[in-house]
């Protein structure tokens, strides 16, 4: 028995899988498709599809999978699946900002494969994905039938791709450097480190020095500890400042490659010197392993950028902080011999991004720095294509009214765009 994915509805469809659609909605949709006898289909929940993927073949549907109790359906030599959510194209938006995507990724098998394919395109310097509907369909079908994508597998075993993943895992190493090192014949980080004539940037030197810590990901507990440290320090200089965790941790992720913070001061007080004061103090306290302060490049008259991936103009600091590990366990653990103390490393290097925004741009900065990248990209695409507006991390510009739209909260920005509000934890596109 084979599983084949078919859309739109064809005569060979035997199973209909719904994600976030009730049985009533599916039946209503079927009526709209002029289907007279819907009993010829099994109406199933996405859990059946997931069970099939796990088993690597179509499995018999159980009551728990069904949207309604159906008559037993005789197995055919070919089971044809129609995805109700993609059939009802008007229900599932192409824009991530009109979908609620939690961390519960039912399609991991598919998204992992597409991530590899997209990374491969990025390596080839292809801007944006070309329209390749048929190709996407082939990949999906192959994963359903074979359990994996041969193309994604081939790429992930490719020497160039493996070097790309390895080299870019070093803080400060991007595509350009990766390409250069690959062309020079390097394949491992040891080989790069051993080549003493290479000129590494300050960032890359720090990246190699703290590689193990940084590559091991930041936990939620570590992010909370860093958050406390940052709040304490910022409030010493600006007691009313708002310090908010953004990025993946605001979206509810349990780990991250860094911790992102947005800082703003509600009062009239200038916050320009804040970052420098914070950095100076941490340096005196021996907590800074690396930092780079980028000054603001914001010009008031400028309209929001047209680019969906544009960087913003806020003053910011990319840093590696020394986070001292909490002493836990029984009190005896604190009594250690002097010789032990020297050997035990009681801290971890944590990548931290600090962004300072003027108070009136705070809502836009918060929305922009919360991500995910795909969600942000789609918000901007949606604003310009569907609303004739320009959105970036500083402002929203209405091209029809020729005016900037003020917002004090993320909710107001969604309202300006005519979008239902999407909570941060539903922005994991
Ligand atoms: N961002 C963006 N466009 C970029 C870079 C960043 O929209 N070119 C936004 C989206 C997320 C946020 O800034 C923070 O970026 P990262 O820390 O890179 O992403 P993350 O979602 O926090 O992921 P991670 O958990 O890996 O840190
Ligand atoms: Mg992050």
UniProtKB/TrEMBL annotation:
BP-aspect Gene Ontology terms: double-strand break repair via nonhomologous end joining
Signal peptide: none
UniProt keyword list: Magnesium, Metal-binding, Nucleotidyltransferase, Nucleus, Transferase
Residues that coordinate or bind Mg(2+): 258, 260, 353
Cofactors (names): Mg(2+)
GO molecular function: DNA binding; DNA nucleotidylexotransferase activity; DNA-directed DNA polymerase activity; metal ion binding
PANTHER family, alphabetized: DNA NUCLEOTIDYLEXOTRANSFERASE, DNA POLYMERASE TYPE-X FAMILY MEMBER
UniProt name for this protein: DNA nucleotidylexotransferase
Source organism of the structure: Alligator mississippiensis
Gene: DNTT
